[in-house]
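User: I'll paste a sequence; please echo it back and then give the predicted structure.

Assistant: Echoing your sequence first, then the prediction.
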Amino acid sequence: MNRFKHAIAAGRPQLGLWQALANAYTAEICAGAGYDWLLFDAEHAPNTLPTLLAQLQAVAPYPIEPIVRPPLCDPAIIKQYLDIGFRTLMIPMVESADQARLAVSAMRFPPHGIRGVASATSRASGFGRQSDYLMRTHEEHCLIVQIESRAGLDAIEEIAAVDGVDAIFIGPGDLSAALGHLGAPRHPAVQAAISDAIARIARTGKAAGIFALDAEDAAARLGAGLCFVSIGTDVGLLARGSEALRAQVLSLGTSR
């Protein structure tokens, strides 16, 4: 069962952590940290199909939902990600209902979609051992579409109305750039646009999520009713943690 899908449908908060190191060892470390979901990024991280597969295998024993973000809404890529075992996808830069419908179609077998059939050789079907895979797998698939542009903001209601879209995720980084404030997601205009988007998503009845800017922002977003929030990245934890440890030692009087 896709516990993440059922949790966001019920409005239960889900905390996530971004995975950009493209490494099975670090993915396994993060999987044991108590998060509800991990996002494996293939848009901006150096992930390939083999690295994603290795990370899926590494986190399989843990009670987290692995989510993958492809570089774009490409049915061929989506097909491969589903075949290796991802059930939940986050599609970046969705700007229209037509793009959302393409993503839905790419995740479903004919006659309801365009996904190619190779169940006997796919990891997702237990290599053919799951007899009802072709008929039932879509029931546990979860589609998240990402709003990151003016066009996406304008089309929120139309995108949310697409059957098969489970949730809408706000990406503050690209959105701030699209609104003329590159690198400044805390700008009042960007924050106002995000607040408006969240309110509009709520009115559609679909789950809303966001990449939080820090722990305080994450707490505020969860308090405001968002269902799922990313509260950091593996890269950020390693970079900031290593810097903080060195700074701590230097602050205690060590000189070089």
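The mean pLDDT is 96. The two ends are 55 Å apart (CA to CA).
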